[in-house]
Amino acid sequence: MSQQQQNTDQQLAQLRDRIDQIDADIARLISQRAECALQVAEVKKANGEDALYYRPEREAQVLRRAMERNGGPLTDEEMARLFREIMSACLALEEPIKVAYLGPEGTFTQQAALKHFGNSAKSRPLAAIDEVFREVEAGAVNYGVVPVENSTEGVINHTLDNFLTSNLQICGEVELRIHHHLMISDITRPEAITRIYSHAQSLAQCRKWLDSHYPNVERVAVASNAEAAKRVKGEWNAAAIAGDMAADLYGLKVLAEKIEDRPDNSTRFLIIGSQAVPPSGDDKTSLMVSMRNEPGALHDLLEPFRRHSIDLTRVETRPSQSGNWTYVFFIDFAGHRDTPSIAEALREVADCASDIKVLGSYPRGVL
């Protein structure tokens, strides 16, 4: 063995010893954190509290600090993901969180649920957005995860419509970068593909790529991308458009990666629950306001926000279910409803509105 090889082997041995020591330190510190989590649960129970083990504002603050302290080489998002899993596992020692999401398994909504709650939460896929709302309202689960808007295709009206009749609060949001892949099964003949399955929104988000690469292939819209992935398992002449989770879950081969037309394609998901969330330091508020259809109504609605320098991030309009030519505005803005200037603006809006309901103030999500 050459001297150079001996030196290389010695350096590698030293680095591996150092890694082993760091791993031991990490394991020890994680165990200490878990012990602290158990002590928190014991204190809450001893004081007879109706304990809220999961605190959205507290977890948001911890994740922000983890990203602020990050000096690389891991990305901020990866550092936050690691801390999320540590917190998820520790929280499960206190009280496992039960989460319902728009299913089936392998959808982007499940991916959003995992990003927000971690793998230690007990998650349950449901077939419809209405069912997610009902399960949370009934107390069968602690929280629900539903999509609300896509950067390419716009708002999901069905989610907004559920807030018209629900008293649930928005407790958080998840911003998820959406990457679509063309995938096939082990029996698919790539040269003989005659149909491509996917959710209607995914087909729309990949329209230009499909026009260029598969202009004459039938595009079949199905209930979810996971359903699309499941269908191609038994069809030799079909492909599916779905995400990484669906490919892994159904054992599919990715034929083409990241075929979405816009590289910044992302979807926003809402976390719904029954609790109001205290300020976290970087929050958003969602509001539902009913207005009569009369001249100047929109101006009267928006003027208090301008006067109090409140940054509106989204305004959507839906027809009221009560009819009478009234409209419902869904408004998102930066800040927490407990902030004095925002509380005053909301009082002014209430003076000119037919009805107003604060859907929730919650920590701002990050990609």
Automatic annotation (TrEMBL):
UniProt feature coiled coil, ranges: 5-32
Calcium recorded as keyword: no
Species classification: Bacteria, Pseudomonadati, Pseudomonadota, Gammaproteobacteria, Cellvibrionales
Function: Catalyzes the Claisen rearrangement of chorismate to prephenate and the decarboxylation/dehydration of prephenate to phenylpyruvate.
Domain ACT: from-to ranges: 286-363
Keywords: Amino-acid biosynthesis, Aromatic amino acid biosynthesis, Coiled coil, Cytoplasm, Isomerase, Lyase, Multifunctional enzyme, Phenylalanine biosynthesis
Record EC number: 4.2.1.51, 5.4.99.5
Main localization category: cytoplasm
Compartment list: Cytoplasm
Name of protein: Bifunctional chorismate mutase/prephenate dehydratase
Ranges for domain Chorismate mutase: 6-98
Catalysed reactions listed for this entry: chorismate = prephenate; prephenate + H(+) = 3-phenylpyruvate + CO2 + H2O
Domain Prephenate dehydratase: 98-274
InterPro entries attached to this UniProt entry: ACT-like_dom_sf, ACT_dom, Chor_mutase/pphenate_deHydtase, Chorismate_II_sf, CM_dom_sf, CM_II_prokaryot, G/b/e-P-prot_chorismate_mutase, Preph_deHydtase
Pathway given in the UniProt record: Amino-acid biosynthesis; L-phenylalanine biosynthesis; phenylpyruvate from prephenate: step 1/1; Metabolic intermediate biosynthesis; prephenate biosynthesis; prephenate from chorismate: step 1/1
